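Mods, move this if it's the wrong board.
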Amino acid sequence: MSLADNLVSIQQRIQSACDRCNREPNSVTVLAVTKTHSADSVAEATRLGLNCFGENKVQEAKAKIPNCPGKVRWHFIGHLQSNKCRDAVELFSMIQSVDSLAIAQEINKRAEQAAKTMPVLLEINVAGEASKFGYKPEQMLVELNEINKLSRLEIHGLMAIPPFSPVAEKSRPYFRALRELKAQAESVLGAPLPVLSMGMSDDFEVAIEEGSTLIRVGTALFGPRQKIAARET
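Not the wrong board. Structure tokens:
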């Protein structure tokens, strides 16, 4: 199937999920995840109306983004190391993977240097998986006000990746937990957090039913990831 066909299929799946929970499809943003996919694929996706794209690695984004259409928004969705914060602040319009006070402080420092305000999401390790990055929910609530005091950061919401399962329904408890945690965070801050980033190619319908406002879709849109040739030494 073509990229256009894949997008129509995704839009139909979004519509069906929204119908089931009385939501408008335009309340869900599609973040097209372009990991290993080319700038040409990004350009084709923009011609089809997509304008929000995500990358997992700063180095790949640094090489790709300059070759892509300029009038799109880029989100960083991978684990961010402190030595990559300067580039991330420069390249992206949102960082979805803030998982500690220390990384928030480093982003704030780099945003100050760039005279830029940085929208962020706080990444939550909803299942407590040792193999995944992300805040423990209770630790995020403890540090939330300190992050909120950082003058160059804007907390827009939460993000999570549930444990992988071939059965989409098994993700529901984790999506529900993230939605409930967002409500707790809003209570702590005394302000709304508009973004709930959860759901990927295989389970985004369940995520939408549980309140997701942003779904991260790669394989369902672009097809299987491309293999990257080994770097020459």
